[in-house]
Design a protein that fits this description.
By secondary structure, the protein is α/β, with parallel strands linked by helices. The chain is 38% helix and 11% strand. The mean pLDDT is 97.
Length: 366
């Protein structure tokens, strides 16, 4: 059984994907070819914002966003300790200091009630993370940011592209939206990639310059930039996959609901925040922390892969030791990191596979 089934997706759309790749091979515009601009137009229309800027990875997109906002040494950026390391490492990469705020234990996203206490005069940005496939309470987060002088909010939407909150799409509900096109994401390419979204013309121009060595015009560099361009081949692959994306999102919703109905009496199933839709980048349950390794091993023996996102919080990582945080500072994140477990999730899971997963989980927990 596949944890994330990219092979089936490729086989289903093989003709379109292969033709898209061949088209790029034929025209030879491998860097910033026409497919890149076409994909950016397609995605900006979908999200409902003026600008989409494709970049080399979801990590790079966050770094470019912070650089465009002028974040640097002496500044603080608030994010959560329960996320992939990209959410915080990019803060160090621009010379700023990460400040962590605990998560809501029900939806694993930033707890707005704890945000205000973390804001100081040094706070230059807030990065809430849309985890596992759904968005946080961005309205409350934005309201708090506005009360403190309009602190920029960057949605780290690496796992939630295609999700909505109160009718607004992920990546289009804050000053800057950032996502990842890593192959395992709900909308992924066949390598590394990501994108930035904004309605702000000035920010879009600045991010575009930073993406390409700090200049919008060749040989004229106005910013300290980087090589953050998205490959034409990857853009072509994503354009070939694009017509099928919405149906895959709908399949994920149906499969997620089916999972929850079958598992709700066995374990703690995902909680969807009111107003949200969920794309289930991961279908994540909670089990007894002491038994999680045994449950995973038992399911592995039955041929069912599982995953843990994430076994350690960011404040536990050695690279962040100098921040001075200790165990107990973020109890919701810490408990989640020991209890969460993700089950196979992709648009091609059928009823038989889900039933098999349920029976294996039930047997393993007993």
């Amino acid at each position: 059984m596949q944890f994330i089934d990219l092979k089936t997706q490729y086989e289903l759309h093989k003709v379109e994907i292969n033709q898209a790749i061949q088209t790029v091979l034929d025209h030879g515009q491998f860097i910033m070819g026409p497919e890149v601009a076409e994909l950016e137009r397609t995605l900006s229309d979908y999200v409902g914002v003026k600008h989409c800027l494709t970049v080399s990875s979801g990590t790079h997109s966050l770094e470019i966003a912070l650089r465009a906002l002028g974040v640097g040494p002496g500044d603080e950026v608030i994010t959560v300790p329960f996320s992939w390391i990209s959410s915080a490492e990019i803060i160090l990469l621009v010379g700023a200091t990460p400040v962590f705020v605990d998560i809501d234990p029900q939806n694993y996203t930033m707890d707005p009630h704890q945000l205000a206490a973390a804001i100081t005069k040094k706070t230059k940005a807030i990065i809430p993370v849309s985890l596992f496939g759904q968005m946080p309470d961005l309205e409350s987060i934005q309201a708090i940011a506005d009360m403190h002088g309009g602190i920029p909010v960057i949605e780290d939407a690496a796992q939630s592209f295609g999700a909505t909150r109160n009718g607004k799409r992920s990546c289009g509900s804050s000053l800057i939206g950032s996502t990842s096109f890593f192959p395992a994401k709900p909308f992924g390419c066949y390598g590394d990639g990501g994108a930035l979204f904004t309605d702000d013309d000035r920010l879009a121009a600045t991010m575009k310059a930073i993406r390409t060595h700090g200049g919008e015009v060749r040989h004229h560099h106005t910013h300290v930039g980087t090589n953050g361009r998205f490959d034409t081949l990857q853009a072509a692959i994503m354009l070939a996959k694009w017509p099928h994306f919405e149906s895959e999102v709908e399949s994920r919703k149906v499969i997620g609901a089916r999972y929850s109905q079958l598992l709700k009496d066995i374990c703690e199933v995902p909680s969807i925040l009111a107003g949200n839709t969920h794309v289930y980048a991961q279908y994540t349950i909670r089990v007894d922390a002491n038994r999680r390794p045994d449950i995973q091993n038992s399911m592995k023996e039955a041929g069912i892969p599982t995953g843990v996102y994430y076994p350690k919080c960011l404040h536990e990582q050695p690279v962040f030791a100098d921040l001075g945080y200790k165990w107990g500072d973020f109890p919701n994140s810490e408990l989640a990191s020991r209890e969460v477990m993700s089950l196979p999730m992709h648009p091609y899971l059928d009823t038989e596979a889900i039933e098999k997963i349920r029976e294996s989980l039930l047997s393993s927990i007993r």
